[in-house]
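Quiz preparation item.
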C-alpha cells in the first residue's frame, strides 16, 4: 500500500512537472514570437521571394533616388493620416505603410510620420496651404518638408481592372518613387495650352502622366501669360480653333511657341484628330518642322479594336529615331497595342517637299499596317486614299551645339485627340499609349523618368526559387522545429527517468 502511494505521488509529481514544462515551453514560444514579430516590424526583417518583388523596393528605384542621398537639402516626409496600428489592421493599407517604412530604412532623407486627423486635425494644417485640399484618414501626404506636397489616397497605390473594378496589382513603388522625384528634382514646367477648345483636364490621365514624369504641370494662355524659363514641354491637346499669328494687335501665340522651340528649351507635343479642322497658323508652324496633319480620317477595319474601324491598333516603326521610343515595348514577349482613335494621317514634308528641307530630322513612330489595309477618307471634298501606309505619330528633332553643349528641341505629332485619354492610359494598362509618351519624354524632354517601375500583379506572388532551394526551406521550416521539440522531449524523458 505504501509503495502504491509513493508511485502515485511520483506520477503526480512528474505529471505536474511535465504539464508545467509544457506550459513554460508554450509561453516561451509565444513570447519569442511576439518579440520576433515586434523586431521584424521595427527593423523590417522581410524576405520578398515573389517573382516581381511585390513587397520590396527595386534596384531601379534605388538607382533613381541614389543621387539625392548626398544632397544636404534632400528631405521627404511621408505622413499617414491615421495611427500605425490602424494602418496595419487592413491588408491594403498595411502594404502601403510597410513600403513607406522600407523607403525610410533605405534612404536617410525619408521620414515616416503619423497624424491622427480625427483627434488632431491641425496636425496637417501646414499642408493645406499647398496642394492638399481635403485629406482623409486614408490619405498619404508626401512632402518635401516644406509647403510642396502630394496628396494620395492609399487606394491610388493599386491598379484596378477596368472591366471588373477589382484590384489586381500593387503600384506603390511607382507612386512613391515618382512623387519623391517630383519633390526632390528641379521639376521643370510642362504647359497645357488653353483658349482654343483644347482638352485640358487636371487630374486626368494625360495631366497626371506629366506629373508622374516629374513636371510641374500648368495651364497657359499664350495670349497673356509669359513662358517661364524653366519650361521644358508644351502640350497642345486637340484644339478646335486656331492660334493667333502675326497681327496688328501685337498678340502672337505662334511666335511664343516658335521662340520656345528655337531657344532649345524643350519640346512640343501636338495631338489632333479627325474632329479638328484645318488651323492655318498652327499648320504653318508645324510645316516648318516637316509636319502636316492631313484633312482626312483613317479607317482600318482589319486592324481596329472596334467594328467601325476607328480605334486603330497602330504598327510600331522598326527603323529611325522614332523607333527608339518603342524599342522596349517591341522587345516584350507580348507587344502591347497602341490605340489611335479617330486617326488623322500625318505627312512628313521633308521627305516629299524640298521647300521645307532643313537640318531638322523627321521620323515616324506609329503607322497603320504595312499590309495597307487602311483607308483615308477626306473630311471635305475629295476621293478616299487607299493602298498606302499612313503615319499616325511622328517626331521631328532639331539638335545644335552651343558652346560645345548639345541643345535639343523636338515636336511629337499624334494624329488623334484621344491618344492620352484615361481609356487608353490607365486601368489594366493593356495598351502601350502611356509608355510611348513616357519613353518620348525620357528620350527627348526629361532624362529621369521612372519608366522601369512597373505595377506588380498579385497573381505573380509565386516563389521565385529553385527546387533545391525549396527543399532547403522546407527542411528548415519542418525539420528544425521538430528536432527542437524532440530534443526537449528527450531531455524531459531523461530527467523523469533518473529523478
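Solution:
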Amino acid at each position: 500500500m505504501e509503495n502504491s502511494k509513493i508511485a502515485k505521488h511520483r506520477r503526480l509529481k512528474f505529471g505536474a512537472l511535465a504539464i508545467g514544462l509544457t506550459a513554460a515551453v508554450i509561453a516561451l514560444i509565444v513570447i519569442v514570437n511576439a518579440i520576433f514579430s515586434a523586431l521584424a516590424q521595427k527593423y523590417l526583417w522581410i524576405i520578398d521571394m515573389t517573382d516581381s518583388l511585390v513587397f520590396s523596393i527595386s534596384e531601379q528605384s534605388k538607382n533613381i533616388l541614389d543621387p539625392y542621398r548626398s544632397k544636404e537639402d534632400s528631405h521627404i516626409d511621408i505622413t499617414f493620416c491615421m495611427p500605425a496600428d490602424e494602418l496595419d489592421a487592413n491588408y491594403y493599407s498595411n502594404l502601403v505603410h510597410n513600403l513607406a517604412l522600407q523607403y525610410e530604412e533605405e534612404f536617410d532623407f525619408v521620414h515616416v510620420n503619423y497624424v491622427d486627423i480625427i483627434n488632431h486635425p491641425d496636425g496637417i494644417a501646414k499642408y493645406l496651404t499647398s496642394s492638399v485640399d481635403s485629406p482623409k484618414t486614408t490619405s498619404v501626404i508626401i512632402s518635401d518638408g516644406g509647403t510642396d506636397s502630394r496628396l494620395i489616397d492609399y487606394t491610388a497605390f493599386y491598379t484596378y481592372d477596368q472591366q471588373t473594378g477589382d484590384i489586381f496589382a500593387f503600384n506603390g513603388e511607382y507612386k512613391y518613387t515618382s512623387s519623391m522625384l517630383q519633390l526632390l528634382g528641379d521639376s521643370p514646367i510642362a504647359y497645357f495650352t488653353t483658349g482654343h477648345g483644347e482638352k485640358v483636364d487636371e487630374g486626368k490621365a494625360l495631366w497626371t502622366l506629366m506629373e508622374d514624369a516629374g513636371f510641374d504641370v500648368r495651364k497657359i494662355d499664350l495670349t497673356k501669360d509669359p513662358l517661364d524659363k524653366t519650361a521644358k514641354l508644351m502640350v497642345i491637346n486637340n484644339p478646335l480653333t486656331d492660334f493667333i499669328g502675326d497681327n496688328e494687335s501685337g498678340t502672337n501665340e505662334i511666335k511664343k511657341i516658335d521662340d520656345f522651340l528655337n531657344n532649345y528649351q524643350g519640346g512640343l507635343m501636338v495631338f489632333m484628330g479627325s474632329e479638328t479642322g484645318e488651323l492655318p497658323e498652327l499648320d504653318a508652324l508645324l510645316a516648318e518642322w516637316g509636319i502636316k496633319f492631313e484633312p482626312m480620317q483613317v479607317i482600318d477595319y482589319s486592324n481596329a479594336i472596334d467594328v467601325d474601324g476607328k480605334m486603330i491598333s497602330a504598327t510600331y516603326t522598326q527603323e529611325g529615331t522614332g523607333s527608339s521610343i518603342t524599342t522596349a515595348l517591341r522587345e516584350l514577349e507580348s507587344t502591347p497595342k497602341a490605340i489611335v482613335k479617330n486617326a488623322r494621317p500625318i505627312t512628313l514634308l521633308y521627305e516629299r517637299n524640298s521647300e521645307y528641307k532643313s537640318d531638322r530630322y523627321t521620323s515616324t513612330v506609329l503607322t497603320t499596317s504595312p499590309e495597307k489595309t487602311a483607308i483615308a477618307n477626306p473630311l471635305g471634298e475629295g476621293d478616299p486614299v487607299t493602298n498606302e501606309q499612313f503615319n499616325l505619330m511622328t517626331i521631328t528633332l532639331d539638335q545644335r551645339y552651343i558652346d560645345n553643349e548639345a541643345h535639343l528641341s523636338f515636336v511629337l505629332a499624334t494624329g488623334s485627340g484621344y491618344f492620352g485619354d484615361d481609356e487608353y492610359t490607365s486601368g489594366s494598362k493593356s495598351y502601350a499609349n502611356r509608355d510611348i509618351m513616357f519613353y518620348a519624354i525620357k528620350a527627348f524632354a526629361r532624362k529621369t523618368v521612372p519608366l522601369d517601375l512597373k505595377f506588380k500583379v498579385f497573381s505573380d506572388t509565386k516563389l521565385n526559387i529553385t527546387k533545391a532551394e525549396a527543399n532547403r526551406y522546407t527542411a528548415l521550416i519542418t525539420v528544425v522545429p521538430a528536432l527542437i521539440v524532440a530534443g526537449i522531449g528527450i531531455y524531459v524523458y531523461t530527467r523523469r527517468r533518473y529523478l
